[in-house]
Specification:
Number of helices: 4
Strand order of the largest sheet: 1-2
Helix content: 55-70%
Oligomer: single chain
Structural class: mainly alpha
């Protein structure tokens, strides 16, 4: 397969890609996106899908709350609703993990109690 240098085709790579037998990892610089994406709801939605974006998310929250760059109240509420939804899902997963761990411990305790106390 031959490749032309000035090919106008657009190539898209996933974040972890094997090229010529080597593993390549694409790392996005997220902080410039604050200025590049004017729609803060879209920006927060994008950042919530990325790992290591907490500091950039905090910068966006600070920017939309500062008096000189304050966003509309509807935008602020949508941003915090998105953040609350992610946090709620995290807490729900944590509680579910704790419950399943406790149920497993109870089951194991009853199992050993049955084994050792059975006549």
């Amino acid at each position: 397969m031959s490749c032309q240098r000035n090919n106008t085709s657009l190539f898209s790579f996933s974040l972890n890609t094997f090229i010529t037998g080597c593993m390549w990892y694409v790392q996005l610089r997220l902080s410039p996106l604050i200025l590049m994406i004017p729609d803060k709801c879209l920006l927060v939605e994008f950042l919530l899908l990325r790992r290591d974006s907490k500091m950039v998310l905090l910068s966006v929250c600070k920017q939309i709350l500062m008096p000189e760059t304050q966003a509309k109240l509807t935008t602020i509420s949508r941003v915090f609703n998105m953040l609350n939804k992610v946090y709620f899902n995290y807490l729900e997963a944590e509680v579910q993990a704790m419950v399943s761990k406790n149920l497993l411990q109870i089951f194991v305790s009853f199992f050993f109690l049955y084994l050792y106390c059975a006549p």
